Every structure is written in structure tokens, then in C-alpha cells.
Amino acid sequence: MTQLALQHYLAVGTIMFAIGLIGFMCRRNLIVMFLCTELMFQGVAINLIAFGKYHGNLSGQAFVIFVLVIAAAEASLALGLVVLLFRQKATLDADAWRELRG
Amino acid sequence: MDQLFPVQYSILIPLAPLLGAIIAGFFGAKWIKGQSHWPIWLGVGFSALLSICLMSEMLTRWHGGETLTAVKNYFTWIQAGKFVVQWGYFFDPLTAVMLCVVCGIGFFITVFAAGYMKGEAGYFRFFAYLGLFIFMMTNLVMGENLIMLYLGWEGVGLSSYLLIGYYYDKPSAREAAKKAFLVNRVGDFGFGLGIMLSFLTFGTISYFGHGVGSHSGLLELAAMPLDQLAKLPGVNVAWVPTAMKWIPFLLMVGAFGKSAQFPLYVWLPDAMEGPTPVSALIHAATMVTAGVYMIARCGTLFVGNAGAMMTIACVGAFTAVFAATIALRQFDLKKVFAYSTISQLGFMFVGVGVLAPVAGVFHLITHAFFKALLFLGSGVVMHAMSGELDMRKMSGLKKVLPKTHILMLIGCAALAGFPFTAGFLSKDQIVGAAWQHSKLLGSVMLFAALMTAYYTFRLYFRVFLGPLVVPPPPDGGHGHGHDDHGHGGSLHGAEDAEGAKAAEHEHHHNHEPAIMILPLIVLAIGALVAGYLNFPERDNSLAGFLGKSPSFALAYEVAEKAGSVVSPMPFGQLEAAKREEETNRDTVADEKHTELMLMWASSGISILGIYLAFVMHLKNRRRGEELPNKMPQLARLLEGKYWIDEIYQDAIVEPLRALGRVFFAIDRYVVDGIVWLISFIPQASGWALKLSTQRGYLQGYAATMLFGIAVILLIIFL
Amino acid sequence: MLAETTSVLSPLVILVLCVVAGVGTVLLLPSRREASLRKVGGCVLLATGLILAALLFRLTAGSPQGGMGPYFWIFSAIAIIGAIRVVTHPKPVYSALYFVLTVFASAGLFLLLWAEFMAVALVLIYAGAILVTYVFVIMLAAEAAQPGTGARNLTEHDRLSRDPVIAAAVGFALMGVMLFVIFDKANEIKTNPVEIQQTIVSGATQELGVFLFQKHLVNVELAGLILTVSMIGAIVIARRRVIGEAGSSSPDMLIAPATPVDDNPHSIPVVGTRNPRQKEYPET
Questions:
Q1: A51 CB near a chain C CB, below 8 Å?
Q2: DSSP states of C188-205 as a string?
Q3: Number of Cβ atoms within 10 Å of the Cβ of C20
Q4: What are the tens digits of pLDDT across the range B160-218?
């Protein structure tokens, strides 16, 4: 495994990103929607690592660390908000908050 | 001349009344109250004093044979590119004469007003407006350029508006104020256009620029021949011939509006809604003569254009006759004098129109005296009669108002042109000049003079002579706002209680308080002797003095060059007159003879008019009353004032209103409709987008965003 | 040597694959369809994935090292299948578990890329920390929510997707565009900088640490700050009583109602809720 075919990894990352996107768009459960955003983070992380390997430096990995940090922060805040919203409406349905459309 | 102290401190002449107005206006309501006349008295008195100082200094210089002009610029008022307006004052004999008239007569009228207006609500307001008026009027006559003139012109219009509408709780007063303001707008529009055209043509609106003889002012440029003009920068030579054709007509429109000449006179009779001192000061003595002043001042712009001069003369003559005929059948004292004022202004316009500006200004001065006297006299009558002014309801007032009767007799004699009164002498000069210009015009003026004598003495005989009749007390106390002045019940209550005779003796003194009679006496003296300012026309008469004004001298030059039939005397050009006398002795002798004949004729006509009035309104009043029945149509026409107001209403006001409605509809439905339609497109699309895309589904927004990203990526990479 | 990419993975192929995968995804997404249809969708997706894999394999089959090696394919397949299941599984708990599977597979891919620290960190943070929190919240919600009406006791918003066709279309459009960019437009990146690659084969973790603290010290500190802030924020958010319920004017009403003694499923005990047995502490 010395040979790196960058495109393969990029393809995998892209596919994961797109799947996460689709899930974010069509799932209505708030928690699953957040899981899908985590999937998108995964896809981006694979891309970053692959590029880092390709260029032979560590910037990619360093940025994945920051991605993880953001993901963790996002998860904690988002779940807090989800709990809050759930207490308001007793449901996790994102459509329950349509009234915010203004 | 520049170093004279009245010139050095000339800014004080307008400032003193303005200061008085400010004090009276801002502190009158709470603190000064009943003493509000003091600031104005002091301010106007100071201005009058300074004016007289200026006059006397000027007379001294005149006798010493020095030049009599000065320019005093205080600061640059407006500067916009080449358009520069100095806040400056120009002094020459014309200015001095006008200042003395405005401030002098203005002072006596303010003194009278303190007695007349005593106890009125808004006493301070009245005097503040008067101070503002004097400020504006002095600016008008002293201004160094057409814009200063225009400032004063509009300022006196404003003061006039405020003072006509002084009794603003009376609908008729409000309407009259609005009417005066709007009718003046018509004239001022023409005047403004004239000023603009003058600037565009000559590149300046200053009368004499840096000084007389510097050839930098409008009036001097207008007098210069074209080939010399072409060398000067800033002059649009190509325009000059056309502009000189149009400027007089445009300026004339302004003069007709302000001085109430024929098509635009309709506001002046209604302006009598204002307090009587206002009628005397603004609507008889000073403001309405601004048009005459303007034409005299800008003579060089006018005299070269024979058509314009003819128009002025004809309009003046027509107005003189027209207004006099209306005055024949008016019964309200002030209305009679209002139409008389219009008629007399017509005389002045004839004077300036037939190339005799000295005669016009002369008549302006004498008229200011006797018409102010007559208005103030009728003010006294009104005061005593509790606001009643209908001459059918009063008679024989000689017995209750003896002093007023004498003063009014003097005023009426002057207005009627009784021989050797001021009015006779000035009117005669105008008639003489008109006769020389055209026999027809002279005859028309003589006819107008006949009617003037008749209607004046009709009024006098009706009101002051004959059996004593006083009007019954009008409902609701005293008219014209005299609700609460000092001697409450006036004549009537006393009469009812104690009997007429005793009441008269006890009370008539009250009806002629000294504060009201003294100014009248001064004016009456003026009405008698002011005529000798310019009679006989000698070296040291008014004509010679005014002739030193560059406006008159230049106007004479221009008129002579233009080839008009012009004699130098009416321009005050005495040297030229002497020369002419020497060269063609016969013609001049002829003219002298004609003048003498005309003087006899106008004396006769005046006495004839007075006799007619005597016959019909004193000796046998029934004849006077039956006369209208013989010609009912004519009487009704005159009583209806030729229905000019109604014609204006139907021919101008209503079509304009209809047009306004059309424009309103266009604005409301077409313009607003288009704007609404334009605004409706984004509104509707926003509404559609809100229904279709802004549904509150979080994922929908994400999908939209991502679709956009996909499109952007495709655009970048394809 | 690499084969001609344009003939192997032309835009047309990508388009067709994306469309087919889109159809499969739509079928597979939770909806009112029968289970058999969803199985069909799964098969379609699987087939598409296999075709793509085969095409990619062919792309690199000619290279001397024999392509990518089996581990890449295995981990990729697990990651993508897991991801699809995360998206398509109607039960949130199962989604979370499939997400763990995806995380593990991604960690495997990271290992293949010589990023062993990242692989471990991924497993620890995602699978260990974040996912536990998710599952915790899912359990809370599932316990508190009203019982679903449909099959398998699912609530309506879990059983039905929102606009699956539009979502799939947009998602696969984006995926197609990106794949097209990767395979068709970026030919110049195919040459591998092998020499540089050799320099970081060993001791990667140590080097990463040095790199982070030399080049990105401020960023690391900022990341720590962000984590702290988000922690505080999460506490504040979850603890605060929601404003808007009737009569929440008195200060003690700022706290959530006590742990339900009447088995009210709507009140969830969360941080900050007053527990009858809990010692009271001063409120804001």
C-alpha cells in the first residue's frame, strides 16, 4: 500500500458527503439530521486526510483535528438545543418548527 | 457722497424698524402688550429721521452742484458662479424721495395706528407686522440691485398678506389676504422672469454696478449702444435686441400686479379687509406705488421700447377710467378710496408711460399724502361709527366729527384736484404730459379727473354735510374687530340715554383723540403744500432734484436716442430743457401755452365735478338717488364692479381648478398606478416565493442552497 | 500506467450512475412503501456501488502495485453502506449505530492513509463521546415521545421522509458534479509525489504533535476555547427553562417542573430540573 490514488479517496469522501446531504435534506428527525451532518464532516475529513497524504504534509491531519473540535462543539450545542426544542413541542420533528418561517 | 453719515449708517434705516418689529413681535405678547407701538414708533421714527438727514445732506450737495449718487455694499448676499448679489444700497435723489415718503408717512401712520388699534387683540402683532413692512419697503427703495428690489417686493407682499389677514378670524379677511397674495404671484412671476432675462442678457442685476459711470451696472449697460456692449465681457450681445423688447413687458407685469393695474387690480379692493392704517400705509401710500418706483428706477430698460411705454400708458389710462367708474357707485367709504387708489395709480402709470417719470413720482408723493389722509380720516369715521362705513347710513357727520370733517375736506379737495391743492398740481402735470403725447390720452385723463372730482365730493357731501344721520349700532358690537376699544358704547348709547346734542358735545372729543388727529393734520398740510415741491418747475424744484438721479438722466438719453417724441423737462433734465428752449423757442412757448390752457381746463373740470356732486348729493339728494334708476343696467354694472371678480372666477379660477382636478386624477391613477404596478411586481413575486419556497421546512432551504452550490460548481468547472 | 480516464469514467457514466443511485436511494428512504420495494432500492444502490467500484478498479488495475489493495475496497464499502443505512434507517437508534460503523470504517481508511493518530482520535471522539451523547438523547426522546402509530412503533416523522425525490436529485446532482470534477477535470493530479510521501511514513503521531504546536498553536488554543464555550453554552441552554409556557413569571418557574410523579411523559428530567430529592441551589 505505497501507492495512493487520490481520486479514489476523494470519491469515497464525496459519496459520504453527498449521502449525508441527502439524509439531511430528507430526514425529519432532528437527531438524525444532526447525525447526517456528522456524516458530511466524515466525508470532508477523509478528503482532508487524503490531500494531506498526497501533499506529504500534516496540514490535512491538523485540519481534521479542528474539524473534530467543531463537530464536538456543534454536537454538544445542537443536542442541547434539541433537548430544549423537544421540551417545547414534545416531538423531534423538524417540521414542528415551521412556524419560525416568518 | 459716500462719506455722508446717513449713507455710512444706511443699514440702520431698514434695521431700526426690523429691530422694533422683533422686539414687538417676540416680547409684545407677554411683556409689552399695550405699549407695543413704542418699539415701532422709535424704529420708524429713527428711520424717518435718518431719511430726512439723508435728504437734507443731499439737498445741500445738490445746491453745491455735486454728484448725488452713492453705493454702499455691506456684504455679498448670494454668490453662485457669475451670479453675485450684494446686500447693498444705492442712493440717489429718487431713493431719498422714496425713503422720505415711506418712512415719513409711515411714521405718521404708525402714530395714528396706536390710537386706532388701541385695545385690539393682537395689538403687538399689528405693530410687529408694520415694522416688518417698513423694513421690507426701505429695502425695496434702497436696494442696489434687482434682487434686493425683489426681496423688498416679496417682503412687502408678505407683510401685506399678514396685515390684510390681521383679523384672521374673519373669513372675508382670510380670503382677501389669500387673494392679494395669489394675484401678486401672477405679477411676480413676470417680474422674476424679467430679472432672470436681465441677468442672462447683461450678466448682472446691479443697477449701477460699482458706481455710476463705471458701466458695470444693468441700467448703464442697457443705455449703451450695441457696438460698445460687444466689447464688454459677460454681456450676451446677441440677445440684447430681443431682450430689450421683452424685459419691459415682463417687469411691467410685476408692476401691474403690485400696483393694482387693470388685469391684476382685483386684490386691492378686497385688501380693505385689513385695519384702516394698513389700507392707508400699504394699500394707498407706499407698497402699491412700488410698481411706479420700479419703472422710474429702471427707466432705461423701458423708455427705449415705445410699444412697452405705450402699453403702460394705455393700461394706466384704462385703469384710471375703469376704476373711477366703479368708484362712482360704491357705498363703502374704504371701497371708494380703494378704487380711487387704483385710479390714481393709473394716473401715475400714465405719467411714467408718456415719458414723464417726474410727473409720475410727483403724483406718487402727493397721492401718498392725501390718500393716507383720506384713509385715516375714514378710519376716524369708522372708529366713531362703530365700524360702519356705508355712506347711505350716515350723513352730516360734520357736527360730530368737526376736525375730521375739515381734514377730510382738504383730502377730498386734493384728490378731486381742486385748484392749487397738491393733487391738482401733480395730476395736472400728468394730464399735461399725456396731452402732449397724445390728445386722446389727455382727454381720457381729463375725463377720469372729472369722475374723480365727482365721486370724491359725492362721498364728502353725503357723509359730512346735510342732516345728521348716524348708523344704528350694528349687531354684535363694533365691526372690524373693534370689540373692546376704550369708549365702548360710542355714540349710540349716549344718544339713547341723554339726547343727541349733549352727547355730541360730551363725546365727540373722544371720537377724535389727539393721537389720531395730529398725524392727520400733518398729512393734511402735506396734501395742501406738497404740490409746490414741483410747482412751478424751477431749478430748485422736485424735477431738478430728481433729474440728478442717474436713472432719470440715462432714461432721457435712451429715449432721445430711440427717437421718441420726448421733452427733457419731464425727466428733470433742466439743462437740456433750457437748451431746447433756446433752440426752438416757438414750440416751447406753444407747449407752455398748452400747459396753461390745460391747467385752466382741469381746474374747470374739477370744479365741474364738484358742482355735479353738490347738485346731486347735497342740494337735491333725491336727484342723485334717482339717477341710477334712469340707467338701471349701467348702475348695476358699476355696482357689480363689471363683474370682473365673477368673470375671473368662471374664466380662470374654475378652469384652473378643473385642470388641477385632472392633474390630480392623473397623478393619483396614472402615475401612482405605474408606481404601484412597479412595486407590485416584487411584492407579488415575493408573495409567490413565500408560498412556494418559504414553507418553513429547514430541508427545503438546505436543498435550495445546495442546488445553488451545484450550479456554481458546474459553472466554474465546465 | 493509468488508463485513459475519460473512457473509463466519462461524465455520461457518472450521470447515469448518479441517476440510478438516486432512484435507488429514493426507494430505500423511509416512506409508506412496502418493505419489498425498499429491498429493491437497496439492491439497486448496491449494484450501482459495485459498478462504480469496478470502474474505479479498472481505472487503477494497470498500475504496478495492483491498484488500491483490498483494504481500501473493504473499508470504503463498509463506510458507504453504513452511511446509506444511517440515512435510510427509520429508527434513530439504528442510524446512530450505523454511524458508529461508518466511523470505524473511516478510521480504517485513515489508517491506510498513514494517519493512525487521526484514526484513533476519530474512534475516541466520534464513536466514544459524540455518539454516546446522541444515543443518550435519542433514548430520552424515544422514552418521552408519544408512541407511534405505524409499524414497529415508529413516529410519523421517522417513518416518512420529506421530499425524497428533490433531496436525492439535489444530493446526487452535487455528487455527480463533484465526481465529474474529480475524475474528469483534475487529470493533472494523477502523478504521485512519491518522494515526499516517503518522508512521513513513520512517527507520524509525534510529527503531528510537533506540527500542531509549532505551526498551529493559536488555532489549537482557539479550538480549546471553542470547546469550553460550547460546553458552557450547552449547559446554559439545556438548563434554562423555556420561556413561553403559561405563567412563568415567578423566579422558581424558571426551573423546569419537578421530576414527574404523575408519570407525565412530557417533562423530561434534564440538568437544572428541580428534583425533590435534590438539594436546592441558587438560581439565576
A1: no
A2: GGGS--HHHHHHTSS-HH
A3: 16
A4: 999 999 999 989 999 999 999 999 998 999 999 999 999 999 988 899 888 888 888 88
d(CA B89, CA B7): 9
- Side-chain-side CA neighbours of residue A87 (13 Å): 24
Q: Give the CA distances from residue C11 to residues B195, C49, C61, C183, in Å, rounded to whole numbers and listed in that order.
A: 79, 16, 20, 9
Please state the pTM of the whole predicted model.
0.66
Q: What is the pLDDT of residues B553-603, one digit of tens each?
A: 889 888 888 877 778 888 888 888 888 778 877 777 888 888 888 889 999
Mutate one of C17, C25, C87, C116 to test the A interface: name it (highest A CB count within 10 A): C87
Helix residue ranges per DSSP H, B620-671: 621-630, 632-639, 644-648, 654-665
DSSP state letters, B56-84: HHHHHHHHTT----EEEEEEEEEEETTEE
Asked if the Cβ–Cβ distance from C177 to B706 is below 8 Å, we say no
Long-range contacts of C182-186 (CB under 8 A, 24+ apart): C182/A7, C182/A10, C182/A11, C182/A14, C183/A7, C183/A11, C183/C5, C183/C9, C183/C14, C184/C5, C184/C6, C184/C9, C184/C10, C184/C11, C184/C14, C185/B717, C186/A7
**Is this prediction's ipTM beyond 0.85?**
yes
pLDDT in tens, C214-224: 888 999 999 99
- B100 in Cβ contact with B57 (< 8 Å): no
Preferred mutation among C116, C130, C211 to probe A, highest tally of A CBs within 10 A = C130
Residue B76, phi then psi, degrees to nearest 5? -80, 115
CB C240 within 8 A of CB C246: no
Sole residue written with cell 454681456: B235
Q: Exposed e or buried b for every residue in B498-526, given b needs 16+ CB within 10 A? A: eeeeebbeebbeebbbeebbebbbbbbeb
